[in-house]
Amino acid sequence: DAGITQSPRHKVTETGTPVTLRCHQTENHRYMYWYRQDPGHGLRLIHYSYGVKDTDKGEVSDGYSVSRSKTEDFLLTLESATSSQTSVYFCAISGWLGEDEQFFGPGTRLTVL
Amino acid sequence: TQLLEQSPQFLSIQEGENLTVYCNSSSVFSSLQWYRQEPGEGPVLLVTVVTGGEVKKLKRLTFQFGDARKDSSLHITAAQPGDTGLYLCAGPGPSEKLVFGKGTKLTVNP
Q1: Does B31 contact A at CB distance below 8 Å?
Q2: Residue A37: exposed, middle, or buried by beta-carbon count in 10 A (0-12, 13-18, 19+)?
Q3: Average pLDDT, chain A
């Protein structure tokens, strides 16, 4: 299994509070991704990174920011959480874009009350 | 926007039955991937198909990529409870980022 962990695994927070989710990899892969998974919508890309301090927006980036200060860590921040951001968040890594296999973390279940 | 439509959305069958799930698009994809996701876990890659008409087999699972590279199918022979999960297809979309279908949720009852 690819060495990819997410923390926390579960979080309950209140509307308006900041939340940071962490993804850590031990594979030295260049690309890292944050997805959210919701019933009826499947997996949707929030942001991705193609190197240290190099990030770009995905399909559903509004309300989210990311940072990557080290190859192994990719942080997702909800500056002011809303109930619509209740979801399961997955981090993924890959060696390159396109048809390369993506390895997924175990997910973080976030509930915003 | 390149979209991947998966059908059926839900499928519940008995152990030992055969099944086929589909992944369709109006766009051409350079390749398609199939992932399986078990409850409480992240998706795991099963196979990548890259050539139109390609057929790949993984034990009881057979994957086919359409000749025009717009569709793919996954056939499972003699399904087992361990096959239960969400099956996702994905392909490189704009800027080479993966686009995922919404998945087929398969339940195999003992």
Answers
A1: yes
A2: buried
A3: 94
